[in-house]
Amino acid sequence: LTVLNAGRRYLKAEDLSGKVFVTSGLGGMSGAQAKAAVIAGCVGVIAEVDEAALLKRHKQGWLMEISDNLDQCIARLRDARKNKIALSLGYHGNVVDLWERLVYELDTTGELLVDLGSDQTSCHNPFSGGYYPVQIGFEEAKQLLSTNPGKFRTLVQESLKRHVAAINRLADKGMFFWDYGNAFLLEAQRAGADVEKRGANKTEFRYPSYVQHIMG
């Protein structure tokens, strides 16, 4: 319902075939995103740093395909988008790399390859394993979390700033991003990312929440 309503509200589209939804998280509640994309008829690309979560969703049939190669992901996304194939593709990697690759594609080809975007990392708990920084790998990050939590926190905040910068670039070209109620925008703001709504008070974000704007 969230994906369908986002399409209706922001894309003015009842039919999401050929549209691309990019997000992250395949554990817990966020695991439903892959299935939702296919039910809605769009192309869903969902990033997940934890291979165990990725493989679990694939085994369950909630995730149709998986890849750890960004070149393959972009090629598959382009093909499914062009041919209007409903697809859920799991990218085993950090979502910041995925967002930045989409910016690269925009800059080099002029193509905006994503229509809808969100995030379901556990940003209500970003410094204890809910969000993993893009600068280092998953296993290295887990080790750093236990040995140097202060450094881990710094990397997370730097990663959040990069995360938002890429989203902002794509949103400026017409991609519609919303907050999934996971404190992503709040933690990004605390990290110093550019998420405040222009001309509004500091408690308002430039992107909507799915609660008020989509489901409400």
UniProtKB/TrEMBL annotation:
Residues 2-214 form the Urocanase Rossmann-like domain. One of its GO terms (biological process) is L-histidine catabolic process. InterPro entries: Urocanase-like (IPR023637), Urocanase_central_sf (IPR038364), Urocanase_Rossmann-like (IPR035085), Urocanase_sf (IPR036190). Pfam families: Urocanase. One of its GO terms (molecular function) is urocanate hydratase activity. This is Urocanate hydratase. The gene is Uroc1.
